[in-house]
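PROTEIN DATA CARD
Card holder: Peptidase S1 domain-containing protein
Chain length: 240
Origin: Graphocephala atropunctata
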Amino acid sequence: PNLRYPWYVALVSPKVSTTLSVSCGGSLITNRHVLTAAHCFPSEDGVSPESRYRVVFELVDRCTNPNVPDSTISRVDVNPSYNSQTLGGDVAIVTLQRSVPYMPVCLPLRNSIKIGEATIIGFGSTLVKSAYPCTMQEARVNIFSRRQCARSGLSPEYSQIPGTICAGMARGGIDSCDGDSGGPILTVDSNGVYTIQGIVSFGEGCARKNLPGVYTQVSAYRDFIDRSISVHRSATAYPC
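Structure generated from the sequence above:
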């Protein structure tokens, strides 16, 4: 299919079902690696990270087209500085069992921050504790400056976590929400090239006035990302 976001993947239950339950999203950054959130792989329940999900591609409608291409997971690298209490360092790299024929998304330069309009996508709920939609949702939000984030209504312990950015609309009404975890926040340049700026991490509710969502800042973790994908020399990234 002609997918607008070919790098988007969904992490779903390994059990085959007529309707896919999307637990987390993710983004292909090479033909074998997915960038997602560390909190999508909790260690407390004893389930091995590699057997927790299968990774599906080309997902447009989780309720009517569950027979989409997929891959099992061969390895999960959770950022060693991830803190499950504060959600600082909330980033993980999933290595697929096989290479896939989809264009990866571009990675940002180290420690760069892009302020302004961005796009969020995913299969998460559109209201707190509401049913997940069948079709992929997308919305436009604004990435805040660090000063704007600090001045928002977010609690200081959330708005000032190193290696995070916040985004949303000051008036509320548009945001990532439950089920969007691990998915991307993207910017696009004048040539139509998308770059992943952040990973959906957490928020204080969803789409509330003056309470932007919090995202892992991808550029702050380029060392971890590059180190994780360098293990597979055959993995190819998009030449951004």
